[in-house]
Amino acid sequence: MAIDMEHEKAYSPSSWSKRFDSTELLSYFNDYAVKVTNDCRKKIACKLDVPYGSTDNTKYDIYGINLSNDVPVFIFIHGGYWQECSKQYSGFHIETLVSKGIKVFNIGYDLCPTVTLSDIVAEIKLAIEKIVKLCYAQGTKTIWIGGHSAGAHLAACILYDSEWQSEMAQENCLKLIKGIILIGGIYSLEPLLTTSYNIPLKLTKKEIETLSFNHVNVKYPILLNNIKALIVVGECDAPKFIEESKNYSKKLIDMVDQVEFILYRNNTDHFDIMEKLMDPTNGLSKKIITNILQ
After folding, report:
1. Could you report the per-residue pLDDT of 140-187, keeping only the tens digit for each?
2. Which domain of life is it from (predicted)?
3. What is the number of structural domains in the chain?
4. Is the pLDDT of residue 224 over 80?
5. How far apart, in whole angstroms, are the C-alpha atoms of residue 109 and residue 177?
6. Is 54 helix (H, G, I), strand (E, B) or coil?
7. pTM
């Protein structure tokens, strides 16, 4: 399909910030994100690159390893349109949460086009499974799972796998998952077919049908239906990302017991919605902390 540049802009988060133009914003954010993560690795007790798969990228980092084993846990999945970034860019929330007694797991994963989106979804489910089982064995009582941008889509994927949920329930682990936090996410894949984002993604018809969560109709029991879903987006995110978040919030109402949608004002864009998590008094920071600790 031909690339539709006007359509692509509506799906380009960096094109709508009030702070920088697109190129400057991406350069600034990438440099800042890596610096923040490196600082966290120096200041906070952590264990890096714990393998959950067989590749270099299928590893996770743990922050707050000096906290007791039974403290609440937050599992985070980074964004990057399933084709960029890594857990090296995932530090903004770490110090804020660890300072409140919340242990943080940041998941890394392989990227397109080296692997397919279906492969990435399988990796994320495996990572979450291994982390949840580890936490269960250590006496953890509360786990929240979150993601930013494409990471929000990946965090949501566990809601659509009844076999995965059943296996986790049989091992008594599923009950630990209390909620999901989806930040600036994208949940429909078909609109990406006429964008350059699909060049490395190479989305298949099956992926579009099964992994477009704004359109998938769930026909089986959701064992995770007693969780809370928090869906947030900034007012200066890409217009289609805002639309996606609003629509997905409505979709989730039919799936889980509690759904909260928040549109953050004050020119909040796709990137500083994460940067602001460094401030524990920030509205989203407080919302996340309150939900995890309740």
Report:
1. 999 999 999 999 999 999 999 999 999 999 999 999 999 999 999 999
2. Eukaryota
3. 1
4. yes
5. 21
6. coil
7. 0.97
pLDDT in tens, 91-124: 999 999 999 999 999 999 999 999 999 999 999 9
**Whole-angstrom Cα distance, residue 197 to residue 274?**
22
Q: Within its chain, how far is the Cα of 268 from the centroid?
A: 18
Q: In angstroms, how far is the first alpha carbon of the chain from the final one?
A: 48
Virtual torsion, Cα 45, 49, 52, 56, nearest 10 deg:
170
3-class state of residue 105 by DSSP: strand
- CA gap 242, 186 in Å, rounded: 9
User: Do residues 236 and 18 make contact, with C-beta atoms less than 8 angstroms apart?
Assistant: yes
d(CA 70, CA 76): 18
The closest of 183, 160, 186 to 244, measured between CA atoms, is 186
Distances (CA, A) of 283 to 96, 115, 223, 226: 12, 37, 30, 25
* CATH code for the domain of 66: 3.40.50.1820
pLDDT of 222 reads 81
Q: How far apart are CA 143 and CA 274, in angstroms?
A: 20
Give the angle subtended at the CA of 107 by the CAs of 240 and 264, to the nearest 5°: 35
pLDDT at 232: 99
Domain that holds residue 14: 5-293
> What single DSSP character describes residue 230?
E
Euclidean distance between CA atoms 62 and 60, whole angstroms: 7
Overall average pLDDT of the 123-134 stretch = 99
* CA 190 – CA 33 distance, rounded (Å): 30
Alpha-carbon torsion (175, 181, 186, 188), positive or negative: positive
The pLDDT value given to residue 184: 99
